[in-house]
Amino acid sequence: MNPGIQKVEALDAGHFVRVEWEDGSESRYPCVWLRDNCQCPHCFLHSARARRLVFEDLDVNIVVKEVALADRKKISITWPDEHASEYEAEWLKKRCFSEEARAEMREDLFLPERQYWGSDLQLPQIPFEEVMYNDESAYKWLCTLKKVGIVLLRGAAARQGELVKLGHRIGFLRLTFYGPTWQVQDKADANNVAYTTGKLCFHTDYPVLQHPPGVQLLHCIKQTAAGGESEVVDGFNVSNKLKKQNPQAYQILSSTAVDYTDVGVDYCDFAVQNKQNIIDVDSRGQAVRINYNNATRDTVFDIPAEKVRPFYAALKEFDDLLNSTEHKFTYKLKPGDIVTFDNWRVLHGRQSYPSGSEVTRHLEGAYADWDVVMSRLRLLRKRVLNRD
């Protein structure tokens, strides 16, 4: 993008600067924002891409003294205190305040597009080695993970430690009370229901934390011959269905603080307590995170008694939708498979399998935060697409 500027002028008694572009479009910039974002070395530390201007020194009622078109690729502003600022055309165009430009910037920074699915999911698959050593494949993996919510990596070695390598490929893994990685297998005196052979209902991991891990990684090292199938469901797709089907139930689940608890010993001893809405929504009422784990939902329920039954009815309707055949997808991991999924969106479960005298099923698990994953995605995009 190499936009050219046709004309620049001050508007509204100097409180706005209007830029007319060579393509005929125009942008209006508030002067307080322009002054706040002066790019000169005194106001901005370019080596850190960080603002140096102290907010207490900013006049929120500032107006321009003079604005000029330095050339068709840059504007210059002189402020009342004679401070001078310059703004590149491309920099300004990207930061236009129009709805269209802001939507384009949101897409560029956060990749909000989602592809919803049910039992018809075509599970995306990418070879593990390609993700590890090819930037284009790693970029495809993370873009698909963000858009679809789940990707299967094939062909990792069937031994512990592969998730640590994958974590380094992203940046780093999330440490929790269960360790940097954790072993999902049948254990005596299990400190988590996952460490049994029983059926696991659909859930997201760790809603007991104030900030649950954004991405989960599960590596199949050993698989039982009978049972043990994995199940997943698109929580955002189901939430949308519930919102249409029963708006009141959706409202209850998105506004009722549910108590979660987890007490035990693993990486260290822990006693964790938290409150979460089953469905977290944004300012538009759109689901942005599911916080549902029946195993760690506390017996304590901090709401008025008369609101308890309506909550249970709403949760039952949501749970029924999660478990409907049209919404859930079933598959079986093979040794060397690593399933990676959005723990804020995709609820996962497991069918039961027979217990034995030896360990017949072994998965290694780990977490990563979305901040880390999105950071790597942006860096890979810059490298793969040669973008600034």
Automatic annotation (TrEMBL):
<comment type="function">
    <text>Catalyzes the formation of L-carnitine from gamma-butyrobetaine.</text>
</comment>
<keyword id="KW-0560">Oxidoreductase</keyword>
<dbReference type="GO" id="GO:0005739">
    <property type="term" value="C:mitochondrion"/>
</dbReference>
<comment type="pathway">
    <text>Amine and polyamine biosynthesis; carnitine biosynthesis.</text>
</comment>
<dbReference type="Pfam" id="PF06155">
    <property type="entry name" value="GBBH-like_N"/>
</dbReference>
<comment type="similarity">
    <text>Belongs to the gamma-BBH/TMLD family.</text>
</comment>
<dbReference type="InterPro" id="IPR050411">
    <property type="entry name" value="AlphaKG_dependent_hydroxylases"/>
</dbReference>
<dbReference type="InterPro" id="IPR003819">
    <property type="entry name" value="TauD/TfdA-like"/>
</dbReference>
<keyword id="KW-0408">Iron</keyword>
<dbReference type="InterPro" id="IPR042098">
    <property type="entry name" value="TauD-like_sf"/>
</dbReference>
<keyword id="KW-0124">Carnitine biosynthesis</keyword>
<keyword id="KW-0479">Metal-binding</keyword>
<dbReference type="GO" id="GO:0008336">
    <property type="term" value="F:gamma-butyrobetaine dioxygenase activity"/>
</dbReference>
<feature type="domain" description="TauD/TfdA-like">
    <location>
        <begin position="117"/>
        <end position="367"/>
    </location>
</feature>
<dbReference type="GO" id="GO:0045329">
    <property type="term" value="P:carnitine biosynthetic process"/>
</dbReference>
<dbReference type="Pfam" id="PF02668">
    <property type="entry name" value="TauD"/>
</dbReference>
<feature type="domain" description="Gamma-butyrobetaine hydroxylase-like N-terminal">
    <location>
        <begin position="13"/>
        <end position="92"/>
    </location>
</feature>
<dbReference type="GO" id="GO:0005506">
    <property type="term" value="F:iron ion binding"/>
</dbReference>
<keyword id="KW-0223">Dioxygenase</keyword>
<protein>
    <recommendedName>
        <fullName>gamma-butyrobetaine dioxygenase</fullName>
        <ecNumber>1.14.11.1</ecNumber>
    </recommendedName>
</protein>
<dbReference type="InterPro" id="IPR010376">
    <property type="entry name" value="GBBH-like_N"/>
</dbReference>
<dbReference type="InterPro" id="IPR012775">
    <property type="entry name" value="GBBH-like"/>
</dbReference>
<dbReference type="InterPro" id="IPR038492">
    <property type="entry name" value="GBBH-like_N_sf"/>
</dbReference>
